[in-house]
Design goal:
Blueprint: E1 2-5, H1 10-21, E2 27-30, H2 36-45, E3 53-55, E4 61-63, H3 65-75, H4 88-117, H5 124-144, H6 158-163, H7 167-173, H8 180-189, H9 193-210
Parallel strand pairs: 1-2
Antiparallel strand pairs: 1-3, 3-4
Helix pairs in contact: 1-3, 1-9, 4-5
Keywords: Transferase
Domain GST N-terminal: 1-80
InterPro entries: Glutathione-S-Trfase_C-like, Glutathione-S-Trfase_C_sf, Glutathione_S-Trfase, Glutathione_S-Trfase_N, GST_C, GST_Omega/HSP26, Thioredoxin-like_sf
Length: 217
């Protein structure tokens, strides 16, 4: 398998977490979407030009982080962590929380970041609305974690792969310490071997951005 991704992309981090949890072998292909030549080459290969993208052993192109993870979980059912639980009710909840996190948290965080990048042109009313929305969703997650070890029960799932990449930014910009259960969850997530592998890639990519060797995606 080949994974086309960028380490600083949260959706790429989501897939990386899943692949490392599954202990799946893959060939990494980092795509610099902010570099015109890299973007052009990737768009010729995959016209939508979005990462992450998985190329299967059968050379099938599989886009979208949640679909990639479900494919990998089915491809390696006996290997590593089961990311889509076999129990029907838990699997439905896992897919629900995954979609909510992508739509209500990850995408909203991206919009909030974009507003903050250009303070001269940012809409302060919009910023406040986004901030309120994010804090409300963080409280929703904190309430769920009152009774669950991981987001959908005792085991890490697809939903956790979606949530964990959002928490470093939430920790520094939304006072994650105010949420006791989320703080506990973040502490345990940082001990996972899969997260440590992803963190190493993130830190390397951030260093390369700082020294000018790699543009920001």
């Amino acid at each position: 398998m080949e994974l086309f991704y960028h380490p600083l992309s949260r959706y790429s981090q989501k897939v990386l977490l899943a692949l490392y949890e599954k202990q799946a072998n893959f060939f990494p292909r980092v795509i610099e979407l902010s570099d015109p030549l890299s973007r052009q080459d990737f768009s010729l290969f995959y016209p939508p030009g979005k990462v992450p993208l998985l190329k299967s052993k059968q050379e099938i192109l599989i886009p979208e982080s949640s679909i990639i993870i479900e494919y990998v979980d089915n491809e390696f059912p006996q290997k590593g962590t089961r990311l889509i639980p076999l129990d029907t009710s838990i699997s439905l909840d896992t897919r629900l929380q995954d979609r909510l996190i992508d739509l209500e948290l990850s995408n909203t965080l991206f919009e909030f970041e974009q507003q903050q990048l250009n303070p001269e042109t940012s809409n302060q009313i919009k910023l406040k609305q986004l901030e309120k929305h994010i804090n409300r969703f963080l409280q929703y997650l904190d309430d769920i974690l009152e009774k669950n070890h991981w987001l959908c029960g005792d085991s890490l799932t697809l939903a956790d792969c979606a949530l964990i990449p959002c928490l470093p930014y939430a920790r520094t910009h939304f006072q994650l310490f105010k949420y006791d259960n989320l703080s506990r969850y973040w502490a345990q997530a940082q001990l996972r071997g899969a997260y440590l592998q992803v963190k190493e890639e993130i830190e390397l990519a951030q260093t390369e951005v700082l020294v000018g060797r790699r543009p920001i995606p």
